[in-house]
Design goal:
alpha/beta; 434 Repressor (Amino-terminal Domain); 11 strands
Length: 366
């Protein structure tokens, strides 16, 4: 190992030199395959600690063998919308297992450094990145790791990496069209703070799509921004949300957690979904029917997105990647739409066939 400006990681050869033993002795200490004297073992272990040496899983495998492990990097915190995130994780694990791969879940927020650590330790054959930000500082590093990487999400610069995402704009259009077509007069979008829209492309696309479609359909729209995360951020704006209750009010929620909190808030105020107001939102289909009152939804298709991402990842692993492309998966929702697919090497945005969902309070036409 060259010290000073060279940032290369220490090797077993460096450990052997520092401990005054052969590389094979270092290997035996690590593997436990042969008996080593306590004195020699202590010298090797001291050298490992001093050099902060981390054994390379790939080097321990036979030549040509793989780890058969995929690293799934996803941010999990107290603010994570679990019903929205879990289907992605479950599907990645299921798809990997069908190909005889295991998945390690990486939830740290160490940015590019975490990706570099994963690649240098050779503990995985490929990486799936979720929660992609508009300006994501991990992607430049990810593009040069030497292992296949696929993104679930969209950035303004994917650095040549393949990405899959759902069509947030079409989701927004379907939701607003449902309210307009069922005779609503007032629409309220429960939005996040502007920071979320700046950081995440899908949130910005969703909010812009809501505003454009409401204007085009002549539906009165009010955007009410949550004051903070969690239940308190929704409960604190109850007066704004239900100002037009009983007068053709339709509430639009972007995430499963917010849908649940709105239903709780309505129950506390003794307001009845489908009578005093309508609630529609963006969530997986199985989540939509699991609420105390089933809601009209547009699905983000987490399982379809994840399956397509894994398909791309394994295809990429079997050949040399020449350039990245972005794929937008169709959304399903409240009305029946048409499907269109563009031609060319780069897949086009897909607006898919949408299936009827259980309505939560479509107001009768007057």
């Amino acid at each position: 190992m060259v010290r000073g400006g060279d940032r290369s990681l220490p090797t077993s050869k460096d450990v052997a030199a520092l401990a005054g033993v052969s590389q094979s002795t270092v290997s035996y200490v690590l593997s436990g395959k042969r008996s080593i004297s306590p004195e020699t073992r202590q010298r090797v272990e001291a050298a490992i600690a001093e050099l902060t040496y981390q054994p390379n899983a790939g080097a321990r495998a036979l030549r040509g063998r793989r780890t058969n492990v995929i690293a799934l990097v996803v941010g999990l915190s107290g603010h994570t919308d679990v019903p929205d995130t879990i289907p992605y994780i479950d599907t990645v694990v299921d798809e990997a297992r069908q190909r005889d791969f295991d998945v390690i879940l990486v939830t740290t927020a160490d940015g590019p450094e975490e990706l570099t650590r994963l690649a240098r330790r050779s503990i995985c054959d490929a990486i799936v990145l979720i929660d992609i930000q508009r300006h994501d500082d991990r992607l430049a590093t990810a593009a040069n790791l030497g292992v296949p990487v696929v993104l679930i999400g969209t950035s303004e610069d994917n650095h040549g990496l393949n990405s899959v995402d759902y069509d947030a704009r079409s989701a927004a259009e379907l939701l607003v069209a449902e309210l307009a077509d069922t005779g609503h007069r007032h629409a309220v979008l429960i939005a996040e703070k502007p920071k979320v829209e700046r950081e995440f492309f899908f949130a910005d696309e969703f909010h812009r799509g809501i505003a454009r479609t409401a204007k085009a359909s002549g539906l009165e729209l009010e955007v009410v921004r949550r004051s903070g995360p969690g239940w308190s951020g929704v409960s604190g704006m109850a007066d704004q949300l239900f100002c037009h209750a009983g007068d053709g009010l339709g509430l639009i929620a972007r995430t499963p957690n917010v849908i649940g909190w709105v239903l709780q808030l309505a129950a506390l105020r003794q307001l009845v979904p489908g009578k005093d107001f309508s609630l529609i939102g963006q969530c997986p289909d199985d989540t939509a029917v699991a609420y105390s009152t089933p809601v009209t939804n547009v699905s983000t298709e987490p399982r379809s997105v994840s399956r397509q991402a894994l398909s791309i990842l394994f295809d990429q692993a079997g050949r040399s990647r020449t350039c990245g492309f972005a794929t937008s998966v169709s959304v399903t929702g409240t009305v029946t739409g048409s499907a269109s697919t563009g031609s060319g090497a780069t897949p086009s945005r897909i607006t898919g066939a949408c299936s009827p969902r259980l309505p939560c309070g479509s107001f009768p036409r007057n």
